[in-house]
Amino acid sequence: MWSLCRAAVWALSLLALAAHGAVVAPANTPSAANEDVQVDDATLLIGFAGPLSGPNMGVGRSMRNGAQLAIDEVNRRGLRIAGKVYRLKLLSQDDRADPVTAEYVARYLASQHVLAVVGHWTSGTSLVAAPVYHAAGVIQVTPSAMSRKLTALSYPRIFRTIPNNESMGRWSAQYAVGKLGVRTVVTIDDRTPFGQGLAEQFAQEIQAQGAQVVGRYSVSDKTSDFNAPLLQARKQAPDLIFFGGLDWQAAVLVKSIRRLKLEARFMAAAGTVGLPFLMGTGVDANGTLVLEPGPPEDKMPGWKSFRQRYSEGFDSNIDLYSVFAYEAAQAIIEGLRQAGSTDPDAVARAMHRLRFEGVSGPVAFNQEGDLLNPSFTMYEVKDQRWAAVTRLHGLPR
């Protein structure tokens, strides 16, 4: 039970959210977000939380659709647990990729007694929501949040279906030094848990590999002005500039690098591979490097079938994170099956023991909820197209 002070603060925060238009409704209903969802005792609610409006709604909707596809498929087959057939229902919420909204969304989903949540999209929103789900006994499986801080919380019901940013940063740095021969590096990050954590791990591994970090800079995650760090970087003449942040800023940054005539190679964070980056950069994108989670789509064992089923069910964009959201929902479903129970703690324990074939390959978790044997692909822009150049497996040493 909240204290009176806590309740008052929360009420004021809801008024502030409403004033900014941030109080959200369930994405599949026109009703207010604080309205209870009515289900019978043979229905299990699974939550989804991600950006379903605003500039990031494309990836949010593709993730929601991936989770919905997994649920639709199991409902058609029937999910029998301890002799009883259950139906799953996805309760979707728009967190707008905003940490303040994400906490409100998490409290709403917990109040609806969801068994588990697929979400959130960013590390910042996931970290804010995680304590809420933990306190409510809700399983959280993120298909996209990479911050190591998330699984380092050691909550027993938290998982992710992509690698964490520590492994991404280490592999990126090892590739830069070992394959590209980079000796000097500048890092720029967006001050978010994802971007800053990734840049820090990249810088640490660059130094461990015997190369030099000649400059480290941070900017707002909302800025499009990179002149200050780049003018400093031009004096340092690095072999490579690494950016920890989202794709839209990476597009602005690489164009700024070319405009200022820096000769450095450019490496961006996971999530950059896709059409939006290419459309925003043109020929300036050529040579850009990005390490993404998972194998290339055409090397995923279940990709062709998944793409067909997705296209038959939805008319919106499909991307890499659709796959990881589908696998997140799969993990919850397989956990229910193996636990033979709808108790969240029993399901979470079963999920820690899981090993199943997902769209991208085998899925299994370690004791902290991270992927046991993650895979990665390094992409490079060649002739204004993304091309897979190297596949990597397992955790870097």
UniProtKB/TrEMBL annotation:
* UniProt keywords, alphabetically: Signal
Classification via CDD domains: PBP1_ABC_LIVBP-like (cd06342)
Q: Which InterPro entries match?
A: Leu-bd, Peripla_BP_I
Tell me what organism the protein belongs to.
Herbaspirillum rubrisubalbicans
Pfam families to which the protein is assigned, alphabetical: Peripla_BP_6
The entry sums up its family as follows: Belongs to the leucine-binding protein family.
Q: What domain of life?
A: Bacteria
- What is the name listed in the Swiss-Prot or TrEMBL entry for this protein? Amino acid ABC transporter substrate-binding protein
- Signal sequence interval, chain numbering: 1-21
